[in-house]
Specification:
Number of domains: 4
Number of strands: 31
Helix content: 25-40%
CATH class of the largest domain: Alpha Beta
Oligomer: single chain
Largest sheet: 8 strands, mixed
Shape: globular
């Protein structure tokens, strides 16, 4: 029984299995921690071992090479999206038996922890393996059914079948006086909550939920889900248990019955966190960038979750996930979300992202109609709001909250400096600010606006909010989950405004248009003249199609920025390229996604990628420093290992990737390069790219590049100033409050 590993970390039985498999695995990579299997240094273990990054399951047939004999007795696939790919996890006959035993014994242990009978009957909202043949979750529920009866319920799609479903549900519960456990995913439970299809459960029943909504239904927060399930099932929140697992493992973690609701894996599983990189001992920045030794891991702290799953006998290696956790010394952990290197889509300004998985919102309810009884709001003095905002952006609390939001002090410093440049251009001129207000198309004083800000970073809201408040509009902000705490950037800015009498209403992340009539901050009905939303194009279109035509939606969709330089000046301009690409850590729509380089004839994309790779190696640490937290540097390494056409520049640095006829959006910190043949008119190339990718709305270039004139719908800015937009009332050429 393995439930703890001290300083040694690796018991003999693990080392034996690990050594047998290592040679086979390294045949697919270049070994030594480079390639698909990074080296991992564990506290107290002087010799690095090979770890397995979980993304390798998406690109390699890892399981069939893990040990002698094909692992095709049972193959499970993850529920990944098309962008991420579905992983393939194979099990041998012995491995499958170990998996089944681990799941059933672990589940029984959880039932005992909650004072329940291990033979308690179950109800599954998860389909059987006949319907979900590749799902490890479906197999898990079937294995549980081997120990005690499990009944399956199918959620009705048609409203006409809801009454029968609820009657069947109640009849099943009334068939015995004994309690039940119910197992479902979040996307199974949310529609039942919305449609009022949760009957009261017998005393002592337990509810298990797992996973996110994954875009299938509207995304919800965990607190909202727990509260709604408890209310609907008429049970205590303590009886609602979260399950955390994945098809690549053979074990699961469950919520412990404690007030803080930590997760803990079952026996024979040892979690750790990847929290840094082990660099060259001489401490030289250049050496640390080019010649690091390994990733480092600890038994407690915050970082990427790693797992020694000794129940996964077919995979004798630690697996590093893409989830960020806060791990306690006793092995319990809090799930904080996805790694910073998770894929971005276009502008990544999802209307209701955040949370684990970043699922989009599906709006099922009509939004409020227009107000007809506008309450007069006192006209705010010219520049007064602007001065408050400007003073806040200069403050230490703004820097502190921004650094926390994007997890980089250097990036926060540059981002706020860029914002101050944009503010100062209008703050110094009364006429410029007046023209900005007029050009923005902002509504008259007294109008009520609801802002749904981007979830990627907090600065995107400052510009439109300042204009709206200066014009005398009443503003409400639906907070993202990342901003829903008292020390967040938006909450601190709101306190500054309220201190001088400017009211801004904050709505919680769980707020849904058309569902909530009141909030804790307001006793009046929440009805707005317009909703200002920053989201991807499909989200905005979905909202427009589902609300009354009288509801005014001001939507700003996807935007992609690119940079262009000349081959001869690549080294000189690389610090500015870093600034454009990483000043918001690639989390904003003005972060460059593609680097176009004008190259001599016959230069291939591969040659160019190699040259950029070399330049990054030479300049990254001196130009940018340790801008990313250690765990994100490790995440950059893991993300790069299985990407096609990727150049490995060194641990803790961005990757360089060839980009020919590919979408310019990136997958976490990397530099995507594309050659531009010398002699080709630059505007011709840019026009061709914009035709292929209409989301391109910003181009940065150095002054030595001539021929950059106006391009319809595209902002042209100096290289290094991608995040210094002019506050002129426009957003990529369109009025902020009256976009086409």
């Amino acid at each position: 029984m393995i439930n703890d590993i001290d300083k040694l970390y690796l018991p003999a039985e693990f080392i034996a299995r690990h050594d047998v498999a290592l040679d086979r695995w390294r045949a697919h990579g270049s070994g030594g921690g480079i390639g698909h299997f990074p080296a991992l240094n564990l506290t107290g273990n002087p010799v690095p071992i090979s770890a397995l990054n979980i993304s390798a399951f998406r690109h390699l047939d890892v399981s069939s090479e893990a040990r002698e004999g094909a692992l095709n007795t049972r193959v499970f696939r993850s529920s990944g999206t098309s962008a991420q790919g579905k992983s393939r996890s194979g099990f041998s006959a012995a491995g499958l038996d170990a998996y089944r035993l681990a799941i059933t014994s672990g589940f029984s242990q959880v039932l005992r922890q909650y004072g329940a009978n291990p033979k308690m009957r179950g109800i599954s909202l998860i389909p059987s393996s006949a319907d979900w043949p590749d799902s490890s979750l479906a197999a898990m529920v079937e294995w549980l059914g081997e120990k005690a009866p499990v009944a399956y319920l199918t959620i009705p799609e048609e409203a006409s079948k809801e009454a029968k479903f609820l009657n069947d549900f109640r009849r099943l519960l009334n068939s015995s006086d004994s309690p039940f456990w119910i197992f479902g995913t979040a996307f199974h439970f949310v529609p039942l909550i919305d449609r009022g299809l949760l009957p009261a459960l017998p005393e002592g029943s337990l509810v298990f939920y797992t996973g996110g909504t994954k875009g299938r239904v509207r995304d919800v927060g965990e607190a909202w889900l727990i509260e709604s399930l408890a209310k609907g099932f008429k049970i205590s929140p303590r009886q609602i248990i979260s399950e955390y697992g994945m098809s690549e493992l053979a074990s699961a973690a469950y919520t412990l019955p404690r007030p803080e609701r930590p997760l803990r894996f079952q026996e024979n599983v040892v979690p750790f966190v990847v929290d840094g990189l082990k660099h060259a001992q001489n401490g030289d920045a250049q050496a640390r960038g080019v010649a690091p030794l390994a990733m480092t891991a600890s038994r407690s702290g915050t970082g990427l979750l790693g797992v020694f799953d000794f129940n996964r006998i077919d995979i004798p290696a630690p697996i590093i996930t893409e989830d960020v956790v806060r791990l306690a010394a006793d092995g319990t952990f809090e799930l904080l979300g996805r790694a910073h290197t998770a894929p971005l889509k276009g502008c990544s300004l999802l209307a209701d992202g955040g949370g684990h998985g970043g699922a989009k919102t599906t709006h099922r309810h009509a939004m409020p109609t227009r107000r007809t009884d506008k309450t007069p709001v006192q006209q705010i003095a010219h520049r007064f709001v602007l001065e408050v905002v400007q003073a806040f952006v200069k403050s230490e609390e703004a820097f502190d909250s921004m650094a926390r939001a994007i997890e980089s002090k250097k990036a926060a410093q540059i981002a706020l400096s860029d914002l101050l440049v944009s503010i100062s251009k209008v703050a110094q001129s009364r006429d410029a600010w007046a023209r900005c207000l007029v050009s923005s198309g902002v509504q008259a004083a007294g109008s009520r606006l609801l802002f749904i800000p981007p979830n990627t970073h907090p600065l995107g809201l400052v510009y439109p909010l300042t204009i709206a408040l200066t014009a005398g509009c009443a503003a409400s902000i639906r907070l993202t989950r990342e901003q829903n705490h008292s020390e967040s950037f938006i909450c601190r800015l709101t306190r500054r405004l309220r201190a001088v009498g400017i009211q801004v209403e904050l709505l919680p992340p769980e707020f849904r248009l058309g569902e909530n009539q009141r909030t804790a901050e307001s006793s009046s009905n929440l009805i707005w003249d317009a909703v200002v939303i920053f989201g991807d194009d499909s989200t905005i279109a979905e909202i427009r199609s589902s609300v009354p035509k009288s509801t005014r939606i001001i939507g700003h969709g996807e935007a992609i920025a690119i940079s262009v330089v000349d081959h001869q000046n690549l080294d000189k301009n690389l610090p500015k390229i870093f600034c454009d690409t990483f000043s918001l850590m690639q989390r904003g729509c003005m972060s460059s996604r593609l680097l176009g380089v004008i190259v001599p004839p016959k230069t291939t994309a591969s040659d160019l990628a190699d040259e950029v790779q070399k330049a990054v190696q030479q300049q990254w640490w001196s130009a940018w420093g340790e801008a990313l937290p250690a765990r994100h540097q490790a995440g950059m390494l893991l993300r790069s290992l299985d990407q096609p056409n990727m150049r490995w520049t060194g641990r803790g640095m961005p990757m360089v990737q060839v980009a020919i006829n590919e979408d310019p959006a990136t997958f976490g910190p990397q530099i995507k390069v594309c050659p531009i043949a010398a002699g080709t008119p630059l505007m011709t190339t840019l026009a061709r790219w914009q035709k292929a990718w209409p989301q391109i709305k910003l181009v940065t270039a150095p002054p030595e590049l001539d021929g950059l004139t106006g391009l319809s719908g595209v902002d042209l800015r100096p290289l290094g100033r991608a995040n210094q937009p002019t506050w002129d009332g426009l957003h990529f050429g369109q009025p902020i409050f009256q976009p086409s």
